[in-house]
Hints:
Order of helices and strands: HEEEEEEEE
Number of domains: 1
CATH class: Mainly Beta
Structural class: alpha+beta
Oligomer: single chain
Amino acid sequence: MRKRHSLLAAFLIAGSIALTGCGTEAQKGDTLDIESSPLPSSFRVGDTSSFWIISKTVILANGQTSKTADYSSYRLVSSDTTVVGVFEDKRLVGRKAGTAEVKALDNKSSLVSQTSVNVTVAAP
């Protein structure tokens, strides 16, 4: 009889741990999205961009989502700062002809935008 109770207790504990794990995975739905990347139609060496518009969506404890449409606590990151530089954390400057990938990073968490923008800089 004791073996059955021990086995049942182990099964119930394992099941509750599995359910707890499922609850934490829902929090991973938070996202950082690039809504607008205002670049001149022809981005050239020396040109600067306007401020980018980034949104952040978080999953609340009750499972609902909350979206901040004009999220301000982010910074841009360029894959090649010799081609596309970042200044004021939220604007770009063309430094030399070429292409670089730009993403947004959240200053308050480890979120990185799921999408990126390929920025091509033309010679002056």
